[in-house]
Amino acid sequence: MVGAGVVGLTTAIQLAEAGATVRVVAERPPGKTTSAVASALVGPTFAPAGHPLRRWEDASVAAFAREPEGSGVRLAPGLLAAREPDPTTPPSGISEVPADAGLDDIPGMRMAEAGELPEGFSFGFHARLPLVDMGRYLGHLERRLGELGVEIQSGRVESLAGLGVSLVANCSGLGARDLAGDVTVEPVRGHHVVVENPGIDAFFIEAPYGRSWAGIFPHGPHVILGGTADVGDWSTEPREQDAAEILRLCRAVEPRLNDARVLAHQVGLRPRRPAVRLEVEEVAGVRIVHNYGHGGLGVTLAWGCAADAAALLLA
Ligand SMILES: Cc1cc2nc3c(=O)[nH]c(=O)nc-3n(C[C@H](O)[C@H](O)[C@H](O)COP(=O)(O)OP(=O)(O)OC[C@H]3O[C@@H](n4cnc5c(N)ncnc54)[C@H](O)[C@@H]3O)c2cc1C
């Protein structure tokens, strides 16, 4: 197994639970991956029934619902809202939203009344979705793996077929660009500002069009504020102007954030690809299952993709 982000850890758990002997090799430990930066709302993908994204999302939602208290997962109330549509603003590119997207079957969906929307917003709906505190959840997944007898080894892998084993799961995220020679994987840089929680319980997310939008994700004592999307930008250094823009957008939606103390800045690179790569490849007698390229939906799709990847590898 290559990779110890949310996709690698969930895939390793599925493989170990299916009876395989698993070893995870990762250049970065879970806490230093892109996965550790995610906000991390599970869904909605808006994919219609039958679409692979919808199947993976549904399987993940079910798996998150089974996680115990203390794992970092909770079912959170929230508002998803959009401003007046601007046909000149392109999508941010952080997730694949099918053209025939619908609101059907989103848990707890209720259209927002005009008076419930922040100023400047013309459309919105309430929902109850899994919200994951990734700092805690990645630790929980590591403990689950430990209980299954799986170790995470630190190291950079140069060749998927050169690991000395016959079955390999490639969950290297953006690293697949080099490791699998896949130039269609590219970064979509995202900045978060982490602030002290002034008493917010519900999440808020603006439809992510353009370069920046308001995103408010409360995780107990802290709130993650976003978001930004810079396609093709490899820098993981925080930028002052991004932070200022995020704070401006979020404070306009939620005035309780005006005096919230800034605790940290986080930057992550979403591993975008035209579509998730989830397929088997045979290289020099080694059976490889690729599971990467989840863009801005890696947490949302993790458990569904992990189940498919494990089934494909062990078939
Ligand atoms: C700002 C931001 C907000 C986000 N919010 C959400 C959200 O709300 N909901 C959601 O679903 N998703 C969200 N995402 C997306 C999500 O974080 C990613 O899709 C997900 O983390 C990808 O997980 P991964 O395991 O594939 O990759 P990563 O977490 O990047 O892990 C890749 C692993 O592979 C290892 N690796 C790579 N190359 C090699 C190599 N050659 N040798 C050894 N190891 C290697 C790395 O070291 C690492 O351990 C967000 C992302 C960002 C940046």
Structure report:
With 315 residues, the protein is an alpha+beta fold. The protein has a single domain (6-314), classed as D-Amino Acid Oxidase, subunit A, domain 2 (D-Amino Acid Oxidase, Chain A, domain 2). Helices cover 24% and strands 30% of the residues. The protein has helices at residues 6-17, 52-65, 134-147, 176-179, 240-253, 298-314; strands spanning 23-26, 73-83, 110-111, 121-132, 151-154, 167-170, 186-196, 203-206, 212-219, 222-228, 230-231, 262-272, 277-283, 286-292. α1 (6-17) runs parallel beside α6 (298-314) and α2 (52-65) packs across α6 (298-314). The model has no long low-confidence stretch (mean pLDDT 94). The structure holds flavin-adenine dinucleotide (FAD).
**CATH homologous superfamily - what is it?**
D-Amino Acid Oxidase, subunit A, domain 2
Instruction: Give the count of structural domains.
Output: 1
Low-pLDDT segments: none
How many helices in DSSP terms?
A: 6
The helix/strand order is HEHEEEHEEHEEEEEHEEEH
Shape: globular
Question: What does the radius of gyration come to?
Answer: 19 Å
Largest sheet: 9 strands, mixed
The proportion of residues forming helix, as a percent range, comes to 10-25%
Kindly name the structural category.
alpha+beta
Mean pLDDT over the residues: 94
**Alpha-carbon distance between the termini?**
16 Å
Q: Specify the CATH architecture.
A: 2-Layer Sandwich
Give the arrangement of secondary structure elements.
Elements: H1 6-17, E1 23-26, H2 52-65, E2 73-83, E3 110-111, E4 121-132, H3 134-147, E5 151-154, E6 167-170, H4 176-179, E7 186-196, E8 203-206, E9 212-219, E10 222-228, E11 230-231, H5 240-253, E12 262-272, E13 277-283, E14 286-292, H6 298-314
Parallel strand pairs: 1-5, 2-8, 6-14
Antiparallel strand pairs: 2-4, 3-4, 7-10, 7-11, 7-12, 8-9, 9-10, 13-14
This protein binds flavin-adenine dinucleotide.
Residues 2-8, 25-28, 33-35, 37-41, 156-157, 171-175, 179, 190, 192, 226-227, 268, 270-271, 292, 294-300 line the site of flavin-adenine dinucleotide.
